[in-house]
Specification:
This protein is of the alpha/beta class. The chain has 16 helices and eleven strands. Strands 1-3-2-4-6-5-10-11-9-7-8 form an eleven-stranded mixed sheet, sandwiched between helices.
Amino acid sequence: MSEWLKMSAADLGRGIGSGEIDPLQLTQTYLEAIDAHPQSKRIYARVTHDRALAEATAASDRARAGQRRSLLDGVPISWKDLFDSAGVGTESGSDLLLGRVPDQDALVLRNATAMGAVCLGKTHMSELAFSGLGLNPVKETPPCINDAGAAPGGSSSGAATSVAFGLAACGIGSDTGGSVRIPSAWNDLVGLKTTSGRVSLEGVVPLCLKFDTVGPLGRTVEDAALMLGVLEGAPAADLRGASLKGRKFADLQTMALDDLDDTVRAAHDSALDRLRAAGAEVVPIEMPDLPEAMALSGVLYTTEAYGLWKDVIEASPDLMFPAILERFRAGGDVLGTDYVAAWARLEQIRMTWDQATSGFDGVLCPTAPILPPNMERLLSEDDYYVRANLLTLRNTRIGNLMGLCALSLPTGTPSCGLQVLGQPDCEAALLRVGAAIEQALA
């Protein structure tokens, strides 16, 4: 049964459907793996044994009765520690929320439970979700699957590593500036950033409500598609027959290819070559307004984040990791007029982006410009931390600023992801394209 721990969520679901896998045995296998794993306490903030076993028992009964609710009915998944779960601590990676216990599940967790998904527990994350590095000295920093001394990517760090280390079939995270896609890239997973407003944020601890999104981290594009359906309580996108023949992609040149690590550059070039070999057309494209949009992000993100958290933070600032505290406080220096003007200008740039990319099936770039940075250096060298923190989210933030849906896919080079930016509210089309790219990169 140990082979179950490396199977895709979809394959586990098919195994349950065929009677080859019992949901209760499957969940017990995962719980035993979590309890025995030497790094599990760095990955899981809380493991919900009783809930998982009760849900798995019900899924097992449904499977025997031929009454399964979805393909993922009985499949165990993990939840980032900012999704409310009834009677279980939800602290968003921060001691500011120590002991916070909600009385009901977040809507997406209720939807997933109604579709039969088994909740394994809550995973560690960057403090209040405000860093793409995954470094959290206040709580725990999960390990990167490819480098024990490196940061795992965040803020959905535990969500990614729970899957990468075989301690969940899929992880649910959030993405405000890249927090699903970065840990997916650095841990060789598929990560889906949904369009802002598509998936409910009810019962999700916020960072920036105008940018916060919910999305899955899994082994395959199929898993991401199925999990999106489960989160929404809706049918999954149909990926059958996905092909790259006749597809046209934009290869983003502006900013996205600056300061690339040599390994990342080689992985990106190789990925594009494989897409062309599979029949895709790849066209270089410039977006002159992108640097301006990126400059606006500091105003937009920090102002809203500090506006939401100011009172809580300033009541106990000593409880925070200083680098995260500093980032929040930067939002206190922004005038309301500048914030309004920044949003107005960003909306104009979004229209320019939409016009320039409307003829493409997706916009391509490396998910992260750098490889996972060293944790000891992040904690001891300020300049190294600042540079790594800014570069890590640069490419993924494009998707959030432009209001897009986006995928990160493994390229086959460890910790190097290929990002595909889709059109707003076009997740089904993006997932079909992603499935075809996944085949080409395999």
